């Protein structure tokens, strides 16, 4: 019995050693994710980015990973602060040895992070940083599946022109995204409809009270108030505009350029102030869906109890791009990965895409992102029940806009 036990122990030891060697030979592929997990940045965005990437990572790993290796995501909290994003990216690259980065979702932070990625020549996929300046840097390591301000502003300017309004006031948060979108919307509106009076006011995203900006509009309400802001500041502005009786009214439409209605905490924060909100958006259940998008939506519903939204899908998409790049390059080498991603056509969760090579806002950007415009007409209304004012590839229909009685 003793000899048998020793032999069994030896066999188990050899098996354990072999398993250990196999694991050592095939370590997981490390991908860095810098996102907002605590204030003052948009924590709700950070949560959704993490949810989308975790779901796709789990799906891929369940099927054997990529190149026979599992995927491991390493997270760093940047708090929505550029300096912390820069430090997080530095740590992920130099200490954690990630092969690529994804997850960036606030423009000011992205602009700081891409400097680090460029210096180390590590691929960086922009998940949700809208500022055109992210693209204008022209860094070959930076890829953009995110919406971009030129697309959003041109669509919103076209919508305002089609509505034939006379006066527009925009509230923009004091970030690269907010100021960039508001300024660009004005420039494009001047070309499309120069007779429309347009101005924007910059608001501090850390403020809790915006009544000083809202009150002057009571005496002279505009036709449209445009929001280029993110939560939680955007919610506060919406509530204060509603409480002061400025919008929404039969006279004044509230138009969101940041996809606010997508967030799972939207209705609990704005309540009646969300009714009649006109929204530019990157997702609507009536849009054509890929099978992977549907699978992710089902899993997200299972895990959170919420309906999927565009940011969850964008996050999964940015990770999917990295994984397709690794599979195409057959390597995790940074140079090979970058070259593979630059030239490949990718199967996005939101459709087929490729990266533009044109300089400026289009550099390494997926240009043909599908988008919609819709209106919320009831409190706690699911996105699927909203009034679709513009489907992908169609013209905006102002005749469908519903206004409150007074």
Descriptive notes:
This protein is an alpha/beta fold. The protein has 2 domains: 25-147 and 289-362, Rossmann fold; 150-281 and 376-400, 3-Layer(aba) Sandwich (Rossmann fold), CATH 3.40.50.2300. It has helices at residues 2-25, 43-62, 82-94, 107-120, 133-136, 149-163, 176-192, 211-214, 216-219, 233-243, 266-270, 291-304, 310-329, 334-343; strands at residues 29-35, 71-77, 100-104, 124-126, 142-144, 167-173, 197-203, 224-228, 253-256, 278-281, 346-348, 351-353, 372-375, 387-390. The longest helix is centred in the N-terminal third of the chain and has 24 residues, at 2-25. The termini are far apart.
Short descriptors:
Rossmann fold; five-stranded parallel beta sheet; disordered N terminus; 406 residues; 16% strand; 14 strands; single chain; seven-stranded mixed beta sheet
What's the helix and strand layout?
Blueprint: H1 2-25, E1 29-35, H2 43-62, E2 71-77, H3 82-94, E3 100-104, H4 107-120, E4 124-126, H5 133-136, E5 142-144, H6 149-163, E6 167-173, H7 176-192, E7 197-203, H8 211-214, H9 216-219, E8 224-228, H10 233-243, E9 253-256, H11 266-270, E10 278-281, H12 291-304, H13 310-329, H14 334-343, E11 346-348, E12 351-353, E13 372-375, E14 387-390
Helix pairs in contact: 2-13, 3-4, 6-7, 13-14
Counting DSSP H or I runs of 4 or more residues, the number of helices is 14
CATH superfamily membership of the largest domain, which one? Response regulator
Low-confidence stretches: 1-24
Question: How many distinct beta strands?
Answer: 14
Percent of sequence in beta strands: 15-25%
User: Helix coverage percent of residues?
Assistant: 40-55%
What is the helix/strand order? HEHEHEHEHEHEHEHHEHEHEHHHEEEE
Report how far the terminal alpha carbons are from each other: 91 Å
